[in-house]
Amino acid sequence: MTVYVHDSQFMTRRGVVLVAIIGLHVFIAWAIATGLARRALEVIAPPIQTDIVEERKLEKEPPPPPPPEFQKPPVEVPPPDVTIDLPVEAPATTAITAVAATPHPPAPPVHTSSRKRAAPAKNFPNSEDFYPAASKRLNEEGARPCMYASGPAAN
């Protein structure tokens, strides 16, 4: 069985600290009651002196003058050195004159596909509905090139 042995010294370190704290609190209470704190503050920080200073009025400077306006001189273009001789025509009249009609060349032949179109299979939609009108007029056939394709075939 262990026995707790009490230190029999009159003042231990803990007791000294406790007495110091109590003494400090008693001193602070006494200083406040007697006005010692106010006198100490007056000695440390004397009262502030203030003086009234009149405001100086500054004269405003006049605004700067506007920037000067520049005028562009007129540009003189010399007359050209080249003279153009135009043929003199008969005076213009408002009369109707007969003009010989020139024959137009015949229209180029329409390209017809030599390939025979296969009939759509049963229950498939008509592919003619999906072709744009311009592709039909140009007789274009086949699938559109894929815009996401990569490799030498896409180039």
Helix and strand topology:
Blueprint: H1 13-34, H2 36-44, H3 133-137
Please describe the biggest sheet, giving its number of strands, its sense, and whether it closes into a barrel.
Answer: none
Write down how many β-strands occur, each being a DSSP E stretch of 2 or more residues: 0
- Determine Rg (CA atoms, Å): 57 Å
Q: Pick out the low-confidence regions.
A: none
Instruction: Give the helix level as a range of percent.
Output: 10-25%
Average pLDDT figure: 76
Shape: elongated
Quickly give the structural class.
mainly alpha
Q: Could you describe the 3D structure shown?
A:
By secondary structure, this protein is mainly alpha-helical. It contains three helices and no strands. It has helices at 13-34, 36-44, 133-137. The longest helix has 22 residues, at 13-34. It starts with 12 loop residues before the first helix and ends in an 18-residue tail after the last helix.
Which features characterize this protein?
155 residues; mainly alpha; 23% helix
Q: Short summary of the structure?
A:
The chain has three helices and no strands. The chain is mainly α and 155 residues long.
